[in-house]
Amino acid sequence: MERTIDEMIDFFLFEKGEDVVVNNIGSRAVIIDATDRINIDADKIIHSKVEIRTGDIVGYYGRKYIITSQIDKGQNSFCGRMKQCNYRIAFNFTGNVKWFDALIETKVMDIDTNQYMSLATGTIKVSLQNNADSRDISINSRFINTGRAWHVKGIDKASLGLIILTCELVATESSDDLDSGIANRWQYETTHTYVLSIDNGASMNVPLNDTAQLIISVTDNGTSMNPLPALTYMSSDSSVVAVDNTGKLMGINAGTAVVTCEMTYENTIKDTINITVVENASHTYTITITGSATIKIGQSQSYVAHFYDNGTEVFDKSAVWSIRNQDGTTSPAYATITTSTGNGATIKANSSSSYVNKYIVLKATLSDDETVFNEISVQLKSLF
């Protein structure tokens, strides 16, 4: 008797399984092309030992898919149909912009004839994952797609796990950012310059069958974001190193993989790190510096260095502190270090108003290895 994929899921995952990311968490699944007669090119069938749900977003070969069918739950696995998300769209919630992987269609299936029917000109259907963010979308919400503006005229939540929007074409507005695809952006927003850094360094080792933590910092126009914005983590090879949605790494097999961290709603803002899983772990030290990104002239600010070994904070290390003018000038100094300890330093800004908006660079170097250091830029500000 022929056995099903559900009965042999472990075998199929070992022989045919592929790396996927389900709702930002790495996993493995069996992916096959849909073969029934209503198949369209982007349709796939996913078999997973880990539970999947209608509306789940699946990353597969660099593309995003959304599970649109109800889930067939077997004794050993879960199965569903997924369609490729053909666009990524943004909704602007009074200045809080959130991005969504979306399936946008101009045709709908007629359940009586089992045929696709075209929607009226200027009308589209948008399928999204039903989550806390998408549930904030309301009638008349606007978004930009392919340089054109659309607004929501219907919301269907009847399919568990999905939100299906009926949208129609409307005129663009002067506050729309057509280049970035954000409706009404300039009504609420000033320019943001985000920088995301993985502070563990360019590479690190993770012990086999052990964990390590990625240290992430994000700045907006030079100011540290605390708490951090929503982040997404991905491993180039989850069979070597897995990463969860908090940035915790797990060494699975000896080898090397690249882990990427990106801002969930600004996914062009990202950083990468090379991870090597080793049987005998070596020490890889990194330093982060916490403290204000600005200092008022004539006043003082304190900074603290944190030390990490393979992503785990350690407390038996110390730093040598130094400071310099960012523009390369040497005299006069825009600021000086007034006190320093093994892990802390206090700096005082020069009191001259001519240094307003100048930058200094504060550097912490590992006391027993000068190749390990970190630097931050601090801007001098006016008292008023």
Can you describe what's shown?
By secondary structure, the protein is mainly β. The protein folds into 4 domains: 76 residues, Beta Barrel (Thrombin, subunit H), CATH 2.40.10; 102 residues, Thrombin, subunit H (Beta Barrel); 85 residues, Immunoglobulin-like (Sandwich); 97 residues, Immunoglobulins (Immunoglobulin-like, Sandwich), CATH 2.60.40.10. It is 3% helix and 53% strand. The protein has a 6-stranded antiparallel barrel with strand order 1-2-3-7-5-4. It has a 6-stranded antiparallel beta sheet with strand order 8-9-12-15-14-13, with no helix packed on it. The longest helix is centred in the N-terminal third of the chain and has 8 residues. It is flat, with a radius of gyration of 26 Å. The N and C termini lie far apart (82 Å). The mean pLDDT is 89.
Structural features:
single chain, 384 residues, mainly beta, Thrombin, subunit H, Immunoglobulin-like, 4 domains, six-stranded antiparallel beta barrel, six-stranded antiparallel beta sheet, 34 strands
Summarize this entry quickly.
The protein has about 375 residues and is mainly β. It contains two helices and 34 strands.
What is the name of the CATH architecture of the largest domain? Beta Barrel
Roughly how much helix do the residues carry, as a percent range? Answer: under 10%
Number of strands: 34
Profile the largest sheet: 6 strands, antiparallel, barrel
Proportion of residues in extended strands: over 45%
As for the CATH topology of the largest domain, it is: Thrombin, subunit H
